[in-house]
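Morning!

As promised:
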Amino acid sequence: MMRTVDDALVAFAAEIGTDGAVAVEGARTRWDRGGAPVAGTRIVQAPRGVVEHRPEEMTVRVRAGTTVADLEAVLSPAGQRSALPDRGGTVGGALAVGENHLDLGTRRTVRESLLEVRYVSAEGRVVTGGGPTVKNVSGFDLPRLFVGSLGTLGCIAEVVLRVNPVPAASRWLRCADADPLRVHAMLWRPACVVGDGSVTWVHLEGHAVDVEAQIASLGAGWEDVDGPPPLPPHRWSVPTGEVGDPAPRPPGRFVASYGVGILFADEPQPPRPLPAAVAAISVRMKENFDPTGRLNPGRTP
Amino acid sequence: MLKRLRHVIARDGRDADPVVRALRAALAADRVRDDAAERSLLAHDASVYPGGLSGPVCFPISAGEVQAIMAIAAEHGRGVVPRGAGTGLAGGAIPLGAPIVVVMTKMNRILSVDTDARVAWVEPGVVNLDLSRALPGHHFAPDPSSQQVCTIGGNVATNSGGPHCLAEGVTNAHVLAMEVVTTAGELVMLGGLDPEPAGLDLRGAFIGGEGMLGIATKIAVRITPDPPSVRTLLLAFESISQAADTVGAIIAAGIVPAALEVMDQRITVAVENFVSAGYPTDAGAVLLAEVDGLPGGTAADAEAIAAVGRANGATSVRIAADDTERALLWKGRKTAFGAIAQVKPDYYLHDTVVPRSRLAEVLAQVYEIAERHDLVVMNVFHAGDGNLHPILAYDAREPGILDRVHAAGREIVEASLAVGGVLSGEHGIGVEKQDLMSQMFSPDDLDHQARLRRAFDPFCRANPGKVLPSSHSCADIAALRSVPTDVWG
Ligand SMILES: Cc1cc2nc3c(=O)[nH]c(=O)nc-3n(C[C@H](O)[C@H](O)[C@H](O)COP(=O)(O)OP(=O)(O)OC[C@H]3O[C@@H](n4cnc5c(N)ncnc54)[C@H](O)[C@@H]3O)c2cc1C
């Protein structure tokens, strides 16, 4: 069954048109990611609104300009939530940036949650990749390619996301004297274990009995807290196994997510140049999707 | 086709052609085969599709050798088809246009295992189950029913699923990085061991590429600790629609089980004859449900699933008392395909996905379609994902039967698409559903899939002629036509 395109998408495609530099603006919470758009770039906004939430399918169809907060407000009465981090931004922005939620252990990755993507191409056409079901291998995987692509391959207009039940219990704890790596290894799927080099925080989610039992297994010295420590502004991605090492730690203050490999730091991560052969594929990808270079010029994922 | 085959067979024993000579110089001579028997064996996979035409067959043992093969293919303008165990069901590994067939099964070492960082590096020829067996206390989560034979490379190329992918996610969620040889002969590392690697997610785009984006030569997989507690239930129902509705009701109750598998009466009876797993043969359908995690939650979820089942008409609910009973229940599910032989000698295993809420309705249509074509249909499927696997059982000796099988198969796809489903949940498109792609995707959609493909393989040399309908498959068709007819057919 060929899928229909609604008026909001048609209008968005018309606005993007077929020529001139164009970039989609979300809430500008991570606007500096990958560089600034070149001068003269026309700024557009993706359509808003949750089109259809289907709790029994664990899916939601949502337009990219919707804020993550508005999306969660629609999901939560049905006891569900998305994998997207809510930093005040939009659904499209969260996908285009591709950063995961701090509670990666229970939310799972953003890239896994994207089932179908609809975007406006450099030619001004509405293109659909993927499909609306939780499982699908029909053709090449455009949704994966779009997560983290910073709007350089197409303007994300509407997506279908997999959503998950909100766990019954959720507890944050803190301990001044615990080895975060050991804590991460002994717990079964904690939502996250973070530490700043001296204090360790743990987020446990799940059935209440299990959460209680896990807290008991942690031993003495843990106290309840409201949430994670304040996170330094910059995000470093390092091999999971290296978070425990002092070596790759950024200078200054940091908060590390153990078992995951994300470090929040005061300073930005130094550029991570791509090996030449990988860069060559990426350049061809960009040229194939945006032959005239009109999509978000100035930015590189 | 027959004439072509005879022609090829007649050539045997003559001087090897230049491609074979070059391959033999690059690899050990005994790992390049061009005898008719081997070539015709590797012209098929586990699908019901008539075989293609295979060129020389190579068994590389290193990425360097794969690079050399690519260079030779480029020089001689030949296609290259990567191949794992050949268990694919969509014809993905069938060689079209006499390409070089690159069998990856000799690259089957587990290179390293780091249980602290939860990552293992493996070669693509490692058999799925062998990997899990080599990881004490851990496993590789994607568990296709073919896991005793299929390879990790094949899993990556088809983005395989399996019974436990409902909660755990399919292959794409369990691959961190991959070393790939491109058709330009370059060795590239896609993805990385860090959670958010720089650049575009080329690893994500490669997975599910059905061998058309390059050849994976080394793979970093995420390994999963075994769950502390597992509960397995078998629920019996009078009708398959009650079983299907129970699946939706379990999810609606906020439970995401590790697995939810449905088997209809015909397959249940066949399985019971085979392994005596204790399945109720008088039930219209059975639902195998599994929950895992911490003990409190699994106990509560198992109770809740039993209650939902009873509310939806379950006539019996059995909770496996111990690991032995649990293994027996799964043995029933895992031998389902083998048990079909009691009903008919051949079968066509279909694969579509529908929204869970439409399962019962589409299943009713599947039975109706099979009846109309006078075919025996059996259903055993990953119900939690809405992933249908109708099995059309037949006897290939019956004249005209395959036409009826394909006609029914096509109608099942159409019924699935009509309720908002998709063409394939885990077998992929290959040659099987190539011409159905335009029923799900617009010309623009297909054009963009072709762009993704060309970014990896501008030469269209990797597994030419698959997945995309011919009007969208770049130079593939030209490449297939350009095969010199006097060389390999
Ligand atoms: C009885 C039975 C049950 C099955 N159950 C399931 C199931 O539950 N879930 C499921 O997902 N599938 C299932 N399958 C299908 C099949 O087993 C999977 O698709 C499997 O992943 C294929 O692996 P393989 O090694 O046999 O690959 P092959 O069949 O050899 O190849 C499949 C595709 O992968 C490509 N390929 C292989 N190796 C590489 C490589 N190294 N680099 C690049 N491309 C490569 C090939 O070109 C081809 O396109 C089943 C099949 C059978 C026969």
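The mean pLDDT of chain A is 94.

Hope this helps with the figure draft.
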